[in-house]
């Protein structure tokens, strides 16, 4: 069973992030085809995924193509009923569905003023009244969902669900534009920023082609507020400790240094996404741990 997911720029395409998380966060494999937004290759990508008009678009194993993040999430939930896309408890499931639907259809002021940009964070974006109203609505929804579902963990309706998938890019916007939220909402944002799947997507986003001018804003910047990456250096040559790439299994051709040790990868992209956030990649960290000296 093979799925193929079409996506845009990882740094900027919030809907692509939702589509990818609907696979990655629930342990479902898919092949990826991508193209940069505002590029002729993007139109060519969509032409291969007719009738989709935007990303994400999904080719199912039987060849049928469906588009729209919510449709993709629902189809995956139906095809993989034990994966956990929706809460099992009926009340929590109803609330999660309502949350995803409202996110899918609303919050246009926040989206327009603060387009997702995972490559940087601003000190202040001077949010207008309509954005502040969207933030108030978000916070009230999140608090209501956690109370109604008695969620004591970091997520909205108990275990991580499609509701959290749909708010992941919102968390990125709050972090990226330093938007004012209360303690509870800030903790929810921090949970997304620390989530390993989100960190892997952002690591890829940081090295996924050049910046897109459309998303540039002339506001003072600050460091990204998520977990600080381990310091890795790509300006090294081999030989590496490992003979095959931890991501692809291919022969190593590119290298990085971490803690004085050299590791190899099968492509510049695989190396660079690892440099961006080494700890986000379990297969790579397994290499690091396996060869680490004993301290006992």
TrEMBL record:
- Where is each GST N-terminal domain found? 1-84
**PROSITE patterns in the record, alphabetically?**
GST_NTER (PS50404)
Indicate the transmembrane segments per the record: none
Q: Which domain of life is it from?
A: Bacteria
Task: Check the record and name the InterPro entries matching this protein.
Answer: Glutathione-S-Trfase_C_sf, Glutathione_S-Trfase_N, Thioredoxin-like_sf
| One Pfam family named in its UniProt record | GST_N_2
Q: What is this protein called?
A: Glutathione S-transferase
